[in-house]
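Query form — protein Tryptophan synthase beta chain

QUESTION: What is the three-dimensional structure of this chain?
INPUT:
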Amino acid sequence: MAERTKYILDEADLPAQWYNVVPDLPEPPPPPLHPGTREPVGPADLAPLFPQALIEQEVTAERYIDIPEEVRDVYRLWRPSPLYRAHRLEKALGTPARIYYKYEGVSPVGSHKPNTAVPQAFYNAAEGVTRLTTETGAGQWGSALAFACATFGLSCEVWQVRASYDQKPYRKLMMETFGAQVYPSPSDRTASGRAILAENPQSTGSLGIAISEAVEQAAADPGARYALGSVLNHVLLHQTVIGEEALRQFELAGDTPDVLVGCTGGGSNFGGLAFPFLREKLAGRMNPVIRAVEPAACPTLTRGRYAYDFGDTAGLTPLLKMHTLGHDFIPDPIHAGGLRYHGMSPLISHIYELGLIEALAIGQQECFAAGVQFARTEGIIPAPEPTHALAACIQEALRCKETGEEKVILTALCGHAHLDLPAYGAYLAGDMVDNELPDAALEKSLAALP
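ANSWER: The structure tokens for Tryptophan synthase beta chain are given below.
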């Protein structure tokens, strides 16, 4: 009998709780600091930006948080998502390794982002908020929040990084179809955007700039709040449905991962898959190597400094202790727009400092080569972001080919590339280059750390 290709859970198996990794860590992460006083921020400091329920989730010491039934009801549109065994990729590589991928491209917008967009919209609507503002890079997060706002009757405004706004017009159309208003960032609609444009009218933008614009808009309107698609604790919390489902699916498969690999930009997709497995590792029930993979053009974990920094370019957010390239850092407009953030999730940065995970950076040509090989073997064209994880999976599988080890490799395929095909066009035409981050540029941006 042939081995199974996919492992499907029933709707009844949908997780009823999100998992908070903080209580299980050897020591707690450093707190966010107020940008003015440099004292730890309290709930009142965050109230202009977030509803009370999300503020409580951001700082909770509880190990598990119940998922509201209204949120689970929307999750059922696509969750539980499938776990696949990549038989054809294994055969093409000639590896004895077993490769699995948890596929989040089955969501309404084609990525993992609705896992947090839906609860964020729900909690805001429940507290009487009528308008959400946000930033987006490639547009996966903006699309997810637009979908979630439509679901719960909120208006949605998205500031999209100019490089991605120009590269990905169909993502803008998707957001507008769900009812969102989309602006290229930097824009002339905010003081922070106008300041950037005055300095550089041709600015390609950054996630840090787009965050500044969205935060500025939300803070000025009592009926508005800001929504973030990655980085913060409550966002990573919501994404743990990925790892919780994957654990159950590995029980069905009768297997246990030896290596877990995820792409990292702000950290939500990686944390969502990794944290439930890290819980099992810390409890001694399994011992996977957990590996974060980032772009060589925006290498926060591998080359950034672990320091307090602003989450945005204008310095409007609290100071976060994280691996950062500096809030002034403007990355090259690489095709993986979702991995172009200057900082890494404080929680993932802390876990990396504790030595519980590994990190490596890979150039985009190797990543797109992996994406093409995956598409031609497994039939799914992966988004540019998870091609980084796929490239690292292929590296590991080829090492197994040399050593003969039958390792079990797991990755999160966090989305498909149906709206990112121009990036593949550039790769296939031979027009893609690897943008390494020069030391001088890094030193310049790090010099501006607060």
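ADDITIONAL NOTE: Residues 18 and 150 are 23 Å apart (CA to CA).
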